[in-house]
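example protein:
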Amino acid sequence: MSENEQSDAAAVSKRLELVRQTIGTVVVGQQPLIDRLLLALLCNGHVLLEGVPGIAKTLLAITLARSIHATFSRIQFTPDLLPSDLTGTLVYDPRNHSFQPEKGPVFAHFVLADEVNRAPAKVQSALLEAMQEKQVTLGKETYPLPQPFLVLATQNPIEQEGTYALPEAQVDRFMFKLKVDYPGMDDELVVMQRMAKPQVELEVEPVLTLDDILDMRQALERVFIDEKVERYILRVVDATRQPEQYGLDFSRYLRFGASPRASIYLSLASRGLAMMQGRDYTVPQDVKDVAHDVLRHRMALSYRADAENRTSDDLITEILETVPVVEETTTNAG
């Protein structure tokens, strides 16, 4: 690789480290989660955050947006939310007897969809178009969304009353599904000391511009991935569809495996992770490091898996431990 490409990777890593430090002044701990959000930003992918209430999912999303010179919208999803509350609508103008577009909160660079699984199907469909097509249709006209455009959605895995299961087609549009866990005791001590005050104002200064993000994404295109690593990605994804072909005994736990988007996102995320670590080339370990976050929401489990307490993360771990990095070849004796 050229010195210029190597310097690209180093420069991107340095920029993202500055954002990481900025977020760290507000959000205590959660470094792996912060790194994944930055990776999604670099790779132009949407993120689904899952965790119990009160563990800074919303704060993290807001802080990420504020660390960048970008527009931000927070939409609280509720059962009575309408598609027009998300995308906007046409408003009649009596002065010229015509309808004018009134754009909704989805027209922002960063959109926080809080408790996304509380909205009904029509709202989910409207969000789906925005996530996939990066556009919104109002009446007969289609309007492009700002670039970059990133949806950070949160959902509570505990409380299911008054919620709607996200459509598989929409879940598949999220590049990552990240599980947010409780902070460690030392981190929680810092949070308690910082937040247990009558008034707390935690502000961050933007350290990244929109042009910086677009430049980093162009640099990502130059990160090298060998065809052998690409074929390893394909074998990992194929093992979610045909586990028996790889000596894996868990077909009974699966209704269906990961879609081709899994292969695309694994390749993209692996290259992005390499760049975040200052490398201009991808190695198989990069694939393993991002596999759980890319695949866990793309594997539909059967009732038997639920009954036996088997999770998609369990199955992914088995796949990574079993599927060979280097494709095995067989020779026939003549």
Summary: The two ends are 42 Å apart (CA to CA). Residues 330-334 have pLDDT under 50 and may be disordered.
